[in-house]
Specification:
Largest sheet: 7 strands, mixed
Enzyme class: transferase
Strand content: 15-25%
Number of domains: 2
Radius of gyration: 21 Å
Family: Belongs to the FGGY kinase family.
CATH superfamily of the largest domain: ATPase, nucleotide binding domain
Distance between the termini: 59 Å
Pathway: Polyol metabolism; glycerol degradation via glycerol kinase pathway; sn-glycerol 3-phosphate from glycerol: step 1/1
CATH class of the largest domain: Alpha Beta
CATH architecture of the largest domain: 2-Layer Sandwich
Structural class: alpha+beta
Number of helices: 17
Number of strands: 23
Helix content: 25-40%
GO molecular function: glycerol kinase activity
EC number: 2.7.1.30
Shape: globular
Length: about 500
């Protein structure tokens, strides 16, 4: 029996594919960056065919580097940037418009208008666990239908299909045979009732989304059809799907209520397992589906930061202060914690717990002796301060985790992780496999095809690499964080 699993990790700035062994170790990988399009201020788009082609090329590269045949792969797992919205023609597979990315803010006015309807946001929050924000898929769908000529009529006739990136990739892999998603991705659309686990007719009417557009919602480990042999060289079952942050929760083996992980990729996302209870946050955190297995839903509480690695990417590409993200650690070591410069990277508004789509980014505390290292360090520190914002909100909701498991590209920076431990005043665990998003998708696919037998077995495969313990005195920690709070308050529009 084939014992390899191929994980397709389609992210915001790159597409990655990793071949995993049946022990959850990385055999080989492939990765390609793709273009970011900013047609207007606040708009962010991707080219759907570039998403597909970079995913396919990365998969072929990973299989080639693993030195295996496609027939050696038991299953494919897919994990994806969530909320990003695509609509395509069911007959041709051609998108009717570019993918509108989760960071896109073009529907801020539409969300504001809906918020002014008495009781509507509260009703939406109770059904979906989400807030009325441009971040989620529903207003992006209605924008495409309203702004692409003939799209709404075609959608109502059943000629078009909507999907988040997982659905689009599945459609392509299966040759249009399978139009489906999983419960984690569905729970990020503002159209899915997380309690009944169904698309909600009332929400569809509110956002003017025809039901005919929608994919079938399945468990996170399920039969999602087969990738056609023409793509990778053999017909391979697609057996697991989860949105990237939920996949990381699984890859970090956070299977018990109270366990939490924080992923540092393009954005930063802290997620805590709350078991079979969908906890309501009083501090503007999101209640979401953590995963759904064998028809049983595990919920999670989530805080979302829009700019984490994207802040460092902006420092690299926008300001051109560095050539590579690896340069950030030595620059921060030179600067130290006592940095008078604060960066508020509200390039796409502020996420949790502020949810201020109108906020703009700023750098504060500049003096004549401010240089590259202080600005770079401020970018790293902003990620840690924003994580504390999320932790404080969880604590006020009564569910502060005692420890945190971290992953994502940024956590290779040991200075960042140590400052995170000092800022949060909790123990931080970094796993041996930091590609936990891809690992979570592999775990799901492996569960479905019988490579893995249980969540308990997956928990045993999680290997701790290093622990970071807090050592900063409380006075210094609070003083630095108060400087952050002051900086955030200066950029908030709704403060």
């Amino acid at each position: 029996m084939p014992r390899y699993i191929l994980s397709l990790d389609q992210g915001t700035t790159s597409s990655r594919a990793i071949v995993f062994s049946d022990q959850g170790t990385i055999i080989a990988s492939g990765q390609q960056e793709f273009s970011q399009h900013f047609p207007q201020p606040g708009w962010v788009e991707h080219e759907p065919q570039e998403i597909w082609q970079t995913t396919l090329s990365s998969a072929r590269q990973a299989i080639a580097e693993a030195g295996c045949l496609a027939s050696d792969i038991a299953a494919i797992g897919i994990t994806n940037q969530r909320e990003t919205t695509l609509i395509w023609d069911r007959n041709t597979g051609e998108p009717v418009y570019p993918a509108i990315v989760w960071q896109d803010r073009r529907t801020a006015d539409q969300c504001l208008a809906l918020k002014q309807q008495a009781g509507l946001e509260d009703k939406i929050n109770k059904k979906t666990g989400l807030l009325l924000d441009p971040y989620f898929s529903a207003t992006k769908i209605s924008w495409i239908l309203d702004n692409v000529e003939g799209a709404r009529e075609r959608a109502e006739r059943g000629e078009l299909a909507f999907g988040t990136v997982d659905s689009f990739l599945l459609w392509q892999l299966s040759g249009g045979e399978c139009h489906a998603t999983d419960a984690t991705n569905a729970s990020r659309t503002l159209l899915f009732n997380i309690h009944s686990q169904q698309w909600d007719d009332e929400l569809l009417e509110t956002f003017r989304v025809p039901a005919a557009l929608l994919p079938q919602v399945k468990d996170s480990a399920a039969d999602f059809g087969n990738a056609q042999s023409k793509w990778l060289g053999a017909e391979i079952p697609v057996a697991g799907i989860a949105g990237d942050q939920q996949a990381a929760l699984i890859g970090q083996a956070c299977f018990q209520p109270g366990m939490a992980k924080s992923t540092y990729g393009t954005g930063c996302f802290m997620m805590m397992n709350t078991g079979n209870k969908a906890l309501h946050s009083s501090h503007r955190l999101l209640t979401t589906v953590g995963y759904r297995l064998n028809g049983e839903t595990t919920y999670a509480l989530e805080g979302s930061i829009f700019m984490a690695g994207a802040t460092i990417q902006w420092i690299r590409d926008g300001l051109q202060l560095i050539c590579n993200a690896r340069e950030t650690q030595p620059l921060a070591e030179q600067t130290g914690y006592e940095n008078p410069v604060y960066m508020v990277p509200a390039f796409a508004g502020l996420g949790a717990p502020y949810w201020d789509p109108q906020a703009k980014g700023a750098i504060m505390g500049l003096t004549r002796d401010t240089g590259i290292k202080e600005i770079v360090t401020a970018g790293l520190q902003a990620v840690c301060y924003q994580t504390r914002d999320l932790l404080e909100a969880m604590a006020e909701d009564g569910v502060k985790p005692a420890a945190l498991r971290v992953d994502g590209g940024m956590v290779v920076n040991a200075w960042l992780v140590q400052f995170l431990a000092d800022t949060l005043a909790i123990s931080i665990a970094r796993p041996q496999v930091t590609e936990t998003t891809a690992l979570g998708a592999a775990f799901l696919a492996g569960l479905q095809v019988g490579i893995f037998s249980s969540l308990e077995q997956l928990a045993e495969l999680w290997v701790h690499e290093q622990a970071f313990e807090p050592s900063l005195p409380e006075e210094a920690r609070e003083r630095l964080y108060q400087g952050w709070i002051d900086a955030v308050n200066r950029v908030r529009v709704d403060a």
